[in-house]
Amino acid sequence: NKYWADLEKVDWRVFYVRLSLKDAMEMSETYIHSLEAFARVAKHLDKLPILCHCQMGGHRGPTSSIIVAHAIGEDTAPNLLKRALELKPSLAKGREYFKSMLKHFGMEKH
Prior knowledge:
Blueprint: H1 2-7, H2 29-44, H3 60-71, H4 77-87, H5 96-104
Helix pairs in contact: 2-3, 3-4
């Protein structure tokens, strides 16, 4: 798999964490807490900025970015969500990954 082969080229000083989850799956609270914990560790180790991405950039990357930015104290979840939706309006379609993030922050759509 090319992805794993390319990881060998990453400088060893890069703090790299891979948490994979398919778009169709809901994020568990454990998954979200792990993402938040890794973000706080990266901040503590002064490994900023943090790049959150997914394969196609559709939902997992932007959703994870909101969680990470909130975890490191960048802004409130509603403000981060508003800015993310301005940059990527298709997030509003709300796949399971996105919906579970809204649930985590108590911002479920009704």
